[in-house]
Amino acid sequence: MNENRHSVIIIVIIIVGVILLSKLFMIQVVDDSFLRRAERNAVQRIVDYPYRGLISDRNEELLVYNNPVFDLMVIPQEFNIEDTAKFCDIFQIEKEKLIERYTAAKKYSWVKPSPLIKQISTTDFAKIQDYLIDYAGLFVMTRSVRAYPDSIAGSALGYIAEIIPRQLERDTINYYIQGDYIGHSGLESYYEKTLRGKKGAKYKMVNVRGVDKGSFKNGALDTASVEGMNLQTTIDLQLQKYGEKLMKGKRGSVVAIEPKTGEILSMVSAPVYDPNLLAGAAYSKNYNVLLSDTTKPLFIRPIQAKYPPGSIFKVVQSLIGLQWGVLTPKTTYACNKALVACHNHPSPVNLFGAIRNSCNPYYYQAFRQMINQEVSSNTYKDTQIGLDKWHEAVEKFGLGNKLGVDLPYENSGSVPSSSLYDRIYGKARWKYSTIYSLSIGQGEMEVTPIQMANLAAIFANKGYYYTPHLIKAINGDPDNIPEEYTTKHDVGVAAHHFDMVQDAMAEALYGTAMRAIIKDIAIAGKTGTAQNPQGEDHSVFIAFAPKEDPKIAIAVYVENAGWGGRAAASTASLMIEKYLRGHIERPALEEYVLVGDFAD
Amino acid sequence: MRQDDLYINKIDWLSILLYGALVMIGWFNIYAAVYDEQAAKSIFDFSINSGKQLVWIGTAVLLITVIMVADYRLFDNLSLILYGVFLVILLLTPFIGKEINGQRAWFEIGPFRLQPGEFAKFATALALAKFIEKPSFDLSQPKFQFQALLVIMIPVSLIMLQPDTGTAMVYFSFFIMLYREGMPQKYYITALVFIAISLLSLAVDNNLYIALPVAGLTLALILMGKKNWQRIVTLGLIGIAIIAYSYSLDLVVSKLPQHQQNRIMVLFNPDIDPLGVGWNVTQSKIAIGSGGFLGKGYLEGTQTKFDFVPEQHTDFIFCTLGEEFGWIGSLVVVVLFVALLVRLVFLAERQKTRFSRVYGYCVISILLFHFMINISMTIGLFPVVGIPLPFFSYGGSSLWSFTILLFIFIKLDSHRIQLLGRMN
Lengths: 600, 424
What we know:
- The structure holds 2 protein chains of 2 kinds.
- The model of chain A has no long low-confidence stretch (mean pLDDT 84).
- In chain A, strands 2, 3, 4, 5, 10 and 14 form a 6-stranded mixed beta sheet that branches. Chain A has a 5-stranded antiparallel beta sheet with strand order 12-11-18-17-16, sandwiched between helices. A 3-stranded antiparallel beta sheet of chain A has the order 1-8-9.
- Among the domains of chain A are: 79 residues; 123 residues, no CATH class.
- In chain A, helix 10 runs antiparallel to helix 21 and helix 21 crosses helix 22.
- Chain A is α+β, with helices and mostly antiparallel strands.
- Chain A is elongated, with a radius of gyration of 33 Å.
- Chain B is mainly alpha-helical.
- Chain B has 2 domains: 365 residues, no CATH class; 53 residues, no CATH class.
- Chain B has 17 helices and 3 strands.
- Chain B has a 3-stranded antiparallel beta sheet with strand order 1-2-3.
- The chains are: A alpha+beta, B mainly alpha.
- The interface between A and B is large, with 39 and 47 residues.
């Protein structure tokens, strides 16, 4: 009666087989997530960090290189020292520190390496190298930190440091991982992708405890790292060094540009800091010291500081007036001190005299002509139309917007337009008498030192400029630099209008900036004195030289150093001499600037 | 003497071939499981498990020879004595056994470790065959059902003292043999319903999902059939019992030791605690699942090699196969087991005596149970129970006991004509 039951049993056996094979098919063939999980389990990716690109000056003198440092790593399982005191003596580590680090390493992993002593210098490493063999469980991992042979141009070069969460969020292609080094400022940040190279990866197999079990697929998936590209900057090492020397003990900026190319020859942000402070082991300590320094050494003054342009802006006013036909070289106004204050000079003056003598009433009157051209019978409306037209013309001089220099955190400065005054005073509630201080570069005008240097380059070039930049070549190839730095910008003023302006600027030195005059080198310049309600005025000077074939355009801002003819003009003149001659023939002037007591 | 009268031709060589294939594949897998690329040793190296397994295989061949040349009547005559001897050994094991993983299930004799619970299986199988042998033994009667159950339950209760739940569970596989021998079907249907309700109750969060359909089904059955009071009450009580059981199961589970609770819960959600309790199942599934269709190649597996899978050369040996030979490898092994089992059913059915048939079905029951539960637990179909995969898993006790179990049946089968003669 039970004979047919064996068929049931056979069916059960086959069903069991089919169920097992179906489930196996599901996890082995249909669901491929197990393969990825297996690889995550057993395959460890080890990043092969590339060498970061080097940075050199325009003459290929090294500004930034990589200094090897050594991390002494420990594998707790293998580590065993008999004489702790001797160990501490050899490896220059305090006993407490050793115990602390070793405990932390053990806590992290018994079999995986952890750093025991970080960032040992090459010299210190040479001392301990021979002893390493005596200690099991120790090995050395080589890394590199940035080093700066001349300790200059910190603010332009920037620094690298561990990536911060905000930067990690911006990294949409997931190139970086926590703990990676990345440019935080300056060229290091702007050219991060060029400098960083490409990480490689080695795939290693590890067992369940993380112990290395050899290469994965015999290294078939491993990729080599690609070295970062080298940057050649436009900086002139000698000039930069000299500029930093001159600005020692002062606050301000020096920006020197090669007018024909827009290449930044020197960019000094005073007070300067030694970029070596922000490389290597003491980074966070030094960073906090610099950050809390009241003289703000980390503030990149040439591109971030904003000042009223002062008298220097009168040159721009003259050029716009000439281009518009509102002014001609023969246009004459009386030096009417009832309108704005002025210093003593013959009156009335023509345009040449106005530039030469920096005549405030002249520009008060000229600017009114430029703004109120009676396009509208309504004075308010007419002022608004005039101001916006003027605003557009001024912006063409690279003012009021970021220039686009190849550094992060550049400031735009500001050139007011009608909308600003509408916001302040209300629409059609303001007229020329409200805004007249713009005529002499005061009021709501603000420019950065680099914009001022760029103005000097525009005057030198008679009407055009290249965006100031710090990059000269990438990996030795000058054609590799971003296109925006080889694009000519025209300021919209005919070249012939510049002739008279250049002559007046050359003449002006004899009036306001005698110290700037260099024997045998024709300089054209303009002083400015930016009024500073908080204290002593800022000393401002822009210049270019030689006048007939300009090779350098420069802007110098020295904060709280009085009027432009002293500190700024002297510094600019010395910089020009240094650049054009290679040496200084006026030791007295150099001494005057270095002492820095610009009392006259 | 005619050619086909030779004893050698009466042996079922197909079963032996399937056995040999499984043992050899198993041996290669044990080597793969312990293989270390950086310190590769020969498969014959006695310092690693593959070398030791070769010793077990060699001695198993000796055991086979002894069984095949021994007098076939021996097993019949010794069955109850063997059963008695093993009951005594099992009784002593918890007291003199070596403690491993909280269990005293092992005897240590010099360098060898033997697990009496494994060997007691064939003794119990022989004893069952002896008991059921008589034609008057009618499993439809409660008296005989009780006797059979008693033969099974004595060793089970002794093994539970060790305690070795996995091995004890295997003895319940004899119900497959009892089914063939006439145990009423209603028990099996009840058991299947019971298991189904248990699984469903554990799988769903809200027992209403079980209670409502069961109530609905009960109502439908009442309305459809004859409407006499007796039937309505019976069906109603069954329905209520099922629902009550479903609700009480959670309570029962919560009374289990924590590690058993966890093993059950992990079955339904292996991601509950992937690094804790779920670790074994998760890693085992990763190893097998990552094998893909064709596998990673022999000795190329990473999960088993680098110790992600625990107990990979014993209870989790199937992981090595799944990882290195993929679905195709799994298919070959599953098919080999199914083929062996089906072949054994065929052999059992051709027996002339009830003794050898019952014994044959006991062999089938045990092998099927081990095969089904072991592979199921490695792929997450069944909670982790520590039982080996027959012929595959590393270890002398396991290989010897399965070999003895199987070859006594092959021996009996080869004498099926003589056995009949003797009986008559």
